[in-house]
């Protein structure tokens, strides 16, 4: 009988104190999910393109994307997607198939870049930079592109401009 009376208190305690707990990582999802939820909930997608072996990409993941303030900002305002921009996997976006068609003869040690990366990322001074962060609206329009490594303060300032509109 005591257990039956105590159980509601334990459950209410968990619900009361479990609410509002800050996450300690970004809730990354797949691109097809982000596309679906973006339209359904009128929420922007944040796509982070990285490449394996990229020191600036690792630094961005470790220093910027691990910051509690940035994690909260991204999780609350965006549908975050992380994509390997050199992947050989087929990726579907807006009903179209994107591949990495760089041949091994052209680039024997590594692939160059995925075609989706080239579609969503505009070169800056005729160069592509890694990492790259792109914000896509629920209407599938690019709102923002951040080239290269972004320190916490710069990333927060840039992203906050999008969330305050």
How would you describe the overall organization of this protein?
This protein is α+β, with helices and mostly antiparallel strands and 165 residues long. The chain has one domain: 3-Layer(aba) Sandwich (Glutaredoxin). The protein is built from 6 helices and 6 strands, in the order ααβααβββαββα. It has a 4-stranded mixed sheet with strand order 2-1-5-6, with helices on both faces. A two-stranded antiparallel ribbon has the order 3-4. It starts with a helix and ends with a helix.
N→C terminal distance: 55 Å
CATH class wording: Alpha Beta
Radius of gyration from CA coordinates: 20 Å
Largest sheet: 4 strands, mixed
Q: Please tally the β strands and state the result.
A: 6
Q: Indicate the mean pLDDT.
A: 85
Outline type: globular
Number of helices: 6
CATH architecture type: 3-Layer(aba) Sandwich
- Structural class per helix/strand content? alpha+beta
CATH fold-level assignment: Glutaredoxin
Order of helices and strands: HHEHHEEEHEEH
Domain module count: 1
Given as residue ranges, the uncertain stretches (5+ residues, pLDDT < 50) are 5-19
Considering DSSP H and I runs of 4 or more, what fraction of the residues is helical?
40-55%
Neighbour order of strands in the largest sheet: 2-1-5-6
Strand content: 15-25%
In CATH, what is the homologous superfamily?
Glutaredoxin
């Amino acid at each position: 009988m005591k257990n039956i009376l105590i159980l509601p208190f334990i459950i209410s305690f968990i619900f009361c104190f479990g609410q509002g707990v800050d996450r300690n990582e970004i809730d990354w999802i797949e691109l097809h999910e982000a596309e679906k939820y973006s339209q359904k909930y009128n929420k922007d997608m944040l796509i982070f393109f990285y490449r394996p072996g990229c020191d600036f990409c690792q630094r961005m993941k470790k220093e910027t994307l691990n910051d509690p303030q940035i994690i909260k900002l991204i999780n609350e305002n965006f549908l975050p997607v992380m994509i390997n921009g050199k992947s050989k996997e087929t990726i579907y976006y807006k009903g179209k198939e994107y591949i990495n068609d760089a041949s091994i003869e052209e680039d024997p040690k590594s692939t160059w870049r995925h075609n989706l990366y080239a579609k969503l990322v505009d070169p800056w001074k005729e160069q592509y930079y890694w990492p790259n962060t792109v914000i896509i609206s629920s209407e599938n329009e690019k709102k923002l592109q951040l080239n290269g490594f972004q320190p916490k303060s710069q990333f927060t300032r840039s992203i906050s401009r999008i969330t305050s509109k």
